[in-house]
Amino acid sequence: MEYLISSQVKYRSDDGAMWPVRDEDSVIILTITMNRLLAYLLERRGQVVTRDELLNNVWDSHGLRSSNHTLNKYISEIRKHLVSSGIKEECVTTVPRIGFMFSSEVDVRGLTDKRLGQEPSTDYINTESGKALQRLAAGAKYKATFITLALMLIAASVTLIIAGIHLPTPKTEKPQDIQTYFLFDYKTCPVYTIQKNSVSLSEQKRKMFLELVESNNIDCLKGTSFLYQVSESYLYGNKGRAFISRCTAKNNKYISCLNNYWSGYESSQ
């Protein structure tokens, strides 16, 4: 599969070749593992992919030893290659405590010239024994500091609902524990964050949550709960990110999550 990224760089997943559109002689050949990692993220553009999912599918399933250190190193190298090839935007976004996401804000087109992904995007994720949030976003299109959680985090834990985020993909993920804090009840659905905030900041986050769910028609459904995170800069109208994941649980296990991710400037400011 050949991709055109940000109208500036071409990338071919078949052999890991990457080159600037205006300088086809300056070809970079990614290593097999790095190529597999970039292709995996591109196929899930706009979705948050948990670290465990990446380690399992890019390294472990191919008989390779994996570690978070190695993953971070490869992500860093991919970013450098994209920048050196002429892309100024941040293509691969880090989702703290969760994983990574190929930004939906970066235009990506395949051979058929169809745009991959949309934004704000939503993802549905199926989980077996707790696949968990992340992609709180697994097969669809989603979205960060924020918790871009994926079914993984979700399934990971905690009595309330807390847990991991996984980006869309019907794969089973090993849940990871994550500390969450109750923010408020949106109608009959509890809303949790991953940061403990002051009373004043909590109120601002509550108002922002209400603005986002109401403007995007995100309803409170029976048996669901929300995992929510927003950067302080976004709260004050500056560039930042916000993430809301609505998860459904059955028998104390998360079975699906619908994720929403916003990046940029808060529109009401």
Automatic annotation (TrEMBL):
Annotated GO biological processes are: phosphorelay signal transduction system; regulation of DNA-templated transcription
Q: Which UniProt keywords apply?
A: DNA-binding, Membrane, Transmembrane, Transmembrane helix
Say yes or no: keyword Cell division present: no
Q: Which SUPFAM superfamilies match?
A: C-terminal effector domain of the bipartite response regulators
Ranges of residues in domain OmpR/PhoB-type: 1-104
Q: Where are the transmembrane segments?
A: 144-167
Superkingdom in the source lineage:
Bacteria
As annotated, the DNA-binding region falls at 1-104
SMART domains the UniProt entry points to: Trans_reg_C
Q: Name one Pfam family in it.
A: Trans_reg_C
Q: Which GO terms describe its molecular function?
A: DNA binding
Q: What is the name attached to this protein's record?
A: Transcriptional regulator
What is the source species? Citrobacter amalonaticus
Taxonomic classification: Bacteria, Pseudomonadati, Pseudomonadota, Gammaproteobacteria, Enterobacterales
